[in-house]
Specification:
This protein is mainly beta. It folds into two domains: 188 residues, Lipocalin, CATH 2.40.128; 157 residues, YVTN repeat-like/Quinoprotein amine dehydrogenase (Methylamine Dehydrogenase, Chain H), CATH 2.130.10. The chain is built from three helices and 30 strands. The strands form seven sheets. It has a five-stranded antiparallel sheet with strand order 1-20-19-18-17. A five-stranded antiparallel sheet has the order 21-22-23-24-25, with no helix packed on it. Strand 3 and strand 4 form a beta hairpin. The protein is globular.
Length: 390
């Protein structure tokens, strides 16, 4: 079932549920539980020297930025900050931008030429997540989530609203100021992504004061125009842009419903529900979509007979951009915490939310779109994965 819905309808339907982002080789739609069981794949007998990453991989580990070479073996620590790095991003030009000690810092891809672009006041640590989101000092002065523009000339970040630092001018401009005193205060938690054409920015957002960690949403800002609030729940949510930014795909693995996979028009935030939906029988969950160069939508998908029950795992599939034409790409399934697609669409890096017989929780695996064994990477507890450039 596929429908077009407005953001307010999404808010109404999902908000009532109090939530936050498997197949056969034909288009016949049935649950993976009904298919013939197949053995789980392992990495046994896979020579490491035959595997190579599509590019260097940058990641956070123990509060610093590291690099894994394409050989998937050699690692290098790039930064040595006194305060832990909270988040970072890597530009198309190979420049790092990161937050440490409440400061926005840039360097080259080797950690050299370090420059502090913006320094905020020292903030006391607040371990409780909701307390931090409701703390006035944190709301107004904390710097968070740097995100490079597609051309590598600007950095979007959060500081009392959405700001954009322009490398050419050396100045930061407030794009959308937030307020805790308005009638229905909407605050930004972080920057998720620029659109490929640089016209839109995806953000994490919540209504102040926040009382439950699930009351957080993904919102869409058209620069110089309007802010579309609450287009998708943050919890379990993930997204993908088409290369021309004409479409935004939103997925959710926390709740199985018609809205678990949607295709949206950024200019209007009007969304078409393209998830498979068999009410009272199977509920489909989706995660980490990607629009491949050949136009297919690649995504992880799983089914459950209860909309709030997590599937046993998610499988890698492909569908058309209208949600039809499901094709199973791999037989193995995983519970996934995060995912990063290779730009060419030939595979995805996943971080396991739950361990398997072969891999512990927190493992980082490379899944090819070909049905070959998964490849574990030597990255225990790595987060914030980013592809680099050679």
């Amino acid at each position: 079932m596929k429908k077009s819905i407005q953001p307010k309808m999404i808010l109404t339907l999902i908000g009532l549920l109090s939530i936050t982002l498997s197949a056969c080789l034909t288009t016949t739609k049935y649950s993976p539980q009904e298919s013939e069981p197949v053995p789980e794949m392992t990495t046994q007998n896979l020579p490491p020297e035959k595997f190579e990453l599509p590019a260097p991989l940058f990641y956070l580990q123990n509060g610093q930025i590291w690099r894994l070479d394409p050989d998937a073996q050699s690692t290098q620590q790039l930064t040595n900050e006194n305060a832990p790095i909270e988040s970072f991003d890597l530009s198309v030009n190979g420049m790092l931008a990161y937050i440490s000690n409440n400061s926005l810092i840039t360097s080259d891809s080797q950690g050299n030429n370090r420059q502090v672009l913006r320094a905020g006041p020292a903030l006391p640590p607040i371990s409780d997540e909701l307390a931090r989101l409701n703390d006035f000092e944190y709301i107004t002065t904390a710097l968070r989530t740097p995100c490079w523009s597609p051309d590598g000339q600007k950095i979007a970040f959060i500081e009392n609203g959405l700001q954009i630092f322009n490398l050419k001018t050396g100045q930061a401009d407030m794009v959308w100021r937030q307020s805790t005193t308005s009638s229905n205060p909407t605050l930004f938690e972080g920057v998720l992504s620029w659109s490929p054409d640089g016209r839109f920015i995806l953000l994490d957002q919540y209504t102040y004061p926040i009382e439950n960690k699930y009351y957080r949403w993904i919102s869409l800002l058209q620069l110089g125009e309007s802010l579309h609030l609450n287009i998708s729940p943050q919890s379990g949510g993930s997204f993908a842009w088409s290369s021309d930014a004409g479409d935004l795909f939103l997925a959710n693995q926390a709740f199985g419903s018609e809205q678990s996979l949607m295709r949206c028009k950024p200019e209007t935030a009007q969304c078409q529900m393209i998830a498979e939906f068999e009410p009272a029988r199977w509920y489909y969950h989706y995660a980490f979509p990607f629009v491949s160069p050949d136009g297919r939508l690649l995504v992880l998908m799983g089914a459950s007979n209860d909309p709030v029950q997590q599937p046993q795992g998610l499988k890698l599939i492909s569908v058309r951009q209208d949600g039809y034409g499901r094709n199973e790409l791999r037989r193995d399934r995983y519970r996934v915490e995060s995912g990063l697609w290779a730009p060419a669409g030939n595979g995805v890096l996943i971080r396991l939310a739950q361990g398997t017989d072969d891999f512990p929780a927190g493992s980082t695996l490379w899944l090819s779109v070909e049905d070959v064994p998964a490849v574990p990477l030597p990255l225990p507890n790595a987060t914030n994965l980013r592809w680099g450039v050679d």
